[in-house]
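1st attempt posting a full record on here, be nice pls
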Amino acid sequence: MGELISKLGELKVGDEVFDVELNASATTNGEESIHIQNSKYRFECSRSDFLKIAATIIFAEKNFESYKEL
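the predicted structure (as tokens):
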């Protein structure tokens, strides 16, 4: 695993609170990774995959809001 670069924030899902961290690549010239974790769970993905997931969630939220207005 790469070293912690910075804590990006916290995420609350239900009763669980997760730390969101940016980590250096574990390999030379590799991509940085994002860790979303707490004492029970841990999710890791590349920075580019995280950005795709985040964009998809934001897009889904906007679609949901527009459907609710109908």
